[in-house]
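Practice problem 4.
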């Protein structure tokens, strides 16, 4: 199950997903477009076909790296 967190600017969404088998966290960034034209839809479909993902960036974190990220955020909030 994924967790989605929207950017405060409203332009992107962060997707966080945990894989039980590999014990890794996957972070993906979706760009939000308010109006999808046919050209935009075809662009996303083509990107999914070519890359297998609808977003441009993805980061994979092990449990230790996820803890490091958590601690960093907690220390700066």
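Answer key:
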């Amino acid at each position: 199950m994924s967790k989605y967190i929207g950017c405060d600017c409203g332009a992107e969404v962060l997707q966080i997903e945990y894989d039980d088998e590999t014990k890794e966290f996957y972070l993906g960034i979706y760009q939000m477009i308010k109006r999808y034209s046919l050209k935009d839809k075809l662009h996303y479909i083509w990107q999914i076909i070519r890359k297998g993902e609808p977003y441009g960036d993805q980061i994979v974190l092990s449990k230790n790296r996820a803890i490091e990220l958590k601690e960093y955020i907690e220390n700066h909030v």
